[in-house]
What does this fold into?
Amino acid sequence: MLAAVRSVAETAQHALLRPVPANVGPFQVAVRYSAAAAEARIGGDLYALIPTRHGVRLIVGDVRGKGLPAVGTAALVLGVFREAAHDEPDLLAVVERIERSLTRNLGHDDFVTAVVAGYPPGGHLEVVNCGHTPPLLVSASGSVTPVEPDLPSPPLGLRALAGHAPGLQALPFAEGDQLLLYTDGVTEARDHGRAFYPLAEGLERHVSHEPARTLGALHDELLAHVGGRLHDDAALLLIRKPAASEAGVAPAIDPGAAAHAPACEAGCR
It folds into this structure.
């Protein structure tokens, strides 16, 4: 029975997966996802990255719970995000659309932690954190800083209980800067001595000008830290703004083309 549930969940998840290209708008991009070894912990990690006429927009989130219900909720979040990211010029309005949909469709004890980010044509980075682990901002010099929210906000689906809406942070994002979004399966991964994986330190050790190379090294180190067997799903999404002088720089977003570009998204276990 468990094998049958896992098979159905994997089929549903694969239906949500789409390849993430190495370049989206002005960014180099990489994604790594590691599935949990334990079959009973099929979960609802999700991520998506979309070029729009409002700029590049991305989300990384984690659905409370496991199994097919979590996969279904991840699909709901990704569907609303995809539509709202194209429709709404304001990033907070994108978050509000997801919140309203989850309020109508989730149970009382269900919720989704998420970071929604955007890079509008103005050239700054916008971040909205809804109860999720803080993204890590990597400067061009290689220093790593957690992007802690100015005002801690509730997860998506729980705003009515908290009584306040999330806030938007605007951050400078210069050439050579990088942003890492991830799920708690990364930072809560433990070694045999029960020590958590030190993601910020690992990122400082392995950061490079190639996001795919950086995440490959982090992924390998994460698996080595836990002895090769994860007990929760773990997702990593890294964007980098290359310098104009670098070879193979991604072109700036063409607003007309971006409106018709395919979404780069995944709903993960």
Confidence is low (pLDDT under 50) at residues 250-264. The first strand starts at residue 23 and ends at 24.
